[in-house]
Design brief:
Distance between the termini: 72 Å
Structural class: alpha/beta
CATH superfamily of the domain at 338-547: P-loop containing nucleotide triphosphate hydrolases
Largest sheet: 6 strands, mixed
Number of helices: 19
Number of strands: 18
Oligomer: single chain
Radius of gyration: 32 Å
Helix content: 40-55%
CATH architecture of the domain at 338-547: 3-Layer(aba) Sandwich
């Protein structure tokens, strides 16, 4: 059992943690949530023994162990390979191996040199010394077996593979990998060590969709307790069953995952607002009574009673943090139908080919999630589309009246360290009012006097949020984002998500955050080494279809991979004895085959058209509802909110189902047409 008792931590006079107390039992799965700066990461460091609290105690029962993954700052041995560094997770096994080798060498030497007189016991009994070594050797082997020595290599390879490392990566030096990959190594070591209590601080930040799914599966079968800080709602919902929410130094305990916490917190806030409104009315009535009868002698006693009553009342306040913040993009200028087109694009770095003869088109109004394993070329493609990187071959053509806007993490480095956050925003052309600038900064966690902080004192996450806010001031009509949510908390993500849902231009977003992407995108672009493929649906739809393909085709198939580069099917050549047909007979036979094909395909094409109309109508209605929901007055009618919310959920489900059917029928038509072509050639 892990128990925290009255943990206190102060920064100056500010209480970051105030009498924080809770118990985590073995096997529990806990999400540690709260706004940025609330003290979540600090609390993990205190539990892990990396930081001392000002007061309070932590109790860990029995032989329980704690493993801790920080957000950054891991420091692997530069002289080791990826496999060797990961193997250090099993230091006990490595020490036992070393002792085993020492004992084996001594026993071998004793056998070869019985007359040397070495290794005798105190009585000079050589046989006794030999027996002692043999006994220790046997004990070492038993310990190695119990510690998993014989499955060590396969366990390491399995976990590293799940986190995205290729077999060839395992023998490469750790110095060849970026900070994100080094964090994966640190995570692999913790997972392999299997501590009783596993503390993870933003474990998904450096993962792609594939490794994130693998980690979710691993966590579901993990037999230890989990305490996780993450802004990935889908991940928390999948993995955790309890939520500890940190706010203003206090911790609230909720018996459910993050979505459960959101519902309960919303109910609590609504109740608090009602109480605050009732209290406000009572206070106003009391003050009016006092003012009205203050100078009437007959009411003096009652007035004094009311005054004392006012002095005792503790006014209910709704936190500014929970106030509704939002922003909207200005209407995007209308671009041409084709926003950007890649034709036979090739990109190479020296001898490394990232893409070759890649053809892609992006159309006005597309909202596209870009997914794929790290190293497949997502960031390279995004930089090509943004005009940051030149292509090695082929063309990248921007459409008519297209105004791109691009955000990447490195843009935080281009901020002027001498300016304040507000001054950086004021430097963007457009004559924006300070009110609008401060509202937008507030959406990205710059509250109150934070807007006057110099850039040079901002953390990396704060700089990234400031760069994102600057980009959104004059966004253009074709927005390209590379991991925009990495340094946002839940509230900021929700604000950005709502704005992007209403944006009427074209979007391209690289992210692994499914909860952020799904309500926004209508297509998913999967990037695999060397090629790309569109999926007509959101990221959850794409992942579901990949899983179905896995189940249908087995392990030999790489889900989502296109087979465009495979050799086309060659029809069998007629043998020398095969009878030949006259031209008239050939034409008749082809006509029969075409007629048969039409009988099969025409109903499918008709159904496809019906689905396209249904999808179009549903998307229009969904967009209308989302616009209504963005209007605060929408929530004044509770019955209407309930009715429209039910319709909205039903629309989303119907849309997903129709998209699934559309792809299935389109695939069936494509198969029939290809089959007919082969038959007509035979």
């Amino acid at each position: 059992m892990l128990q925290l008792q009255n943990i206190q931590l102060y920064f100056g006079e500010r209480a970051l943690l105030r009498d924080a107390s809770f118990i985590v039992n073995p096997g529990e799965r806990v999400a540690l949530t709260g706004p940025n700066g609330a003290g979540k990461s600090t609390l993990l460091r205190i539990i892990a023994g990396e930081q001392e609290a000002d007061a309070g105690a932590i109790h860990l029962s029995g032989t329980s162990t704690i493993g801790y993954l920080p957000q950054d700052g891991v420091d692997p041995d530069p002289g080791l390979t990826v496999f060797e560094e990961t193997e250090r997770a099993f230091q006990e096994i490595l020490d036992l191996r070393q002792r085993e080798e020492q004992l084996r060498a001594r026993l071998s030497k004793m056998g070869n040199d019985e007359s040397s007189g070495e290794d005798r016991d105190e009585d000079g009994d050589e046989d006794g010394a030999n027996d002692a070594l043999l006994n220790e050797y046997g004990m070492i082997q038993t310990k190695l077996e119990n510690a998993g020595h014989y499955t060590l290599q396969s366990d390491i390879e399995r976990v590293l593979s799940g986190l995205g490392f290729r077999p060839s990566d395992l023998t490469r030096s750790t110095t060849e990998f970026s900070g994100g990959w080094l964090m994966r190594i640190a995570l692999a070591k913790l997972l392999l060590r299997r501590p009783t209590y596993l503390l993870l601080d933003e474990p998904t930040n450096h993962l792609d969709i594939e490794s994130l799914q693998w980690l979710e599966s691993f966590m579901k079968t993990y037999d230890g307790a989990l305490i996780i800080v993450s802004h990935d709602k889908a991940f928390l919902n999948s993995v955790t069953t309890r939520t500890l929410h940190v706010k203003h130094g206090d911790i609230r305990d909720y018996a459910g995952n993050y979505s459960f916490f959101e519902r309960k917190a919303a109910e609590e806030r609504e109740l608090l607002l009602k109480k605050a409104e009732n209290q406000k009315k009572e206070l106003e009535e009391t003050r009016r009574f006092i003012e009205r009868f203050r100078y009437k002698a007959t009411k003096a006693k009652q007035v004094q009673s009311r005054i004392r009553q006012l002095e005792k009342i503790e006014e209910i306040r709704v936190d500014e943090e929970t106030a509704e913040l939002s922003f909207q993009f200005p209407a995007a200028e209308r671009s041409g139908r084709v926003v950007l087109e890649l034709s036979s694009v090739t990109k190479r770095y020296g001898n490394l080919t990232v893409f070759e003869n890649l053809d892609l088109a992006f159309e006005r109004g597309d909202k596209i999630a870009v997914v794929g394993p790290n190293g497949a070329g997502k960031s390279t493609l995004i930089q090509i589309l943004a005009g940051v990187l030149p292509v090695t071959g082929g063309t990248c053509t921007l459409g008519h009246n297209v105004i791109p806007g691009y955000f990447a993490q490195h843009q935080a480095e281009e901020l002027d360290p001498k300016k304040t956050a507000l001054e950086e925003m004021q430097s963007v052309p457009g004559g924006h009012s300070d009110t609008r600038l401060r509202t937008l900064l507030g959406c990205f966690l710059f509250a109150g006097d934070d807007v006057f902080k110099p850039v040079k004192v901002l953390s990396g996450g704060e700089r990234s949020r400031l760069a994102l806010a600057k980009m959104l001031l004059n966004p253009g009509n074709f927005l390209i984002f590379d991991e925009p949510t990495n340094h946002l908390d839940m509230q900021s993500k929700a604000i950005l998500r709502q704005a992007l849902q209403q944006f009427d231009g074209t979007l391209l977003i690289v992210s692994h955050d499914r909860d952020f992407l799904d309500p926004i995108v209508n297509k998913t672009l999967e990037i695999q080494p060397g090629h790309a493929r569109y999926w007509l649906g959101d990221v959850s739809y794409y992942l579901r279809k990949k899983q179905e393909m896995d189940q249908q085709t087995g392990d030999s198939h790489q889900p989502g991979h296109s087979n465009h580069n495979s050799a086309p099917h060659q029809p069998d050549k007629p043998s020398a004895t095969q009878p030949t047909l006259s031209r008239k007979e050939e034409r008749r036979l082809r006509a029969e085959k075409r007629a048969l094909l039409s009988e099969k395909i025409n109903p499918l094409k008709k159904r496809l058209e019906e689905l396209e109309n249904a999808i179009s109508n549903a998307e229009e209605r969904k967009q209308t509802i989302e616009t209504d929901m963005a209007d605060p007055s929408f929530y004044e009618n509770g019955d209407r909110v309930k009715q429209v919310s039910l319709e909205y959920e039903s629309l989303k489900q119907a849309l997903a189902e129709n998209l699934r059917k559309w792809e299935e029928i389109a695939g069936r038509i494509e198969f029939l047409e290809e089959e007919a072509d082969r038959q007509l050639q035979s």
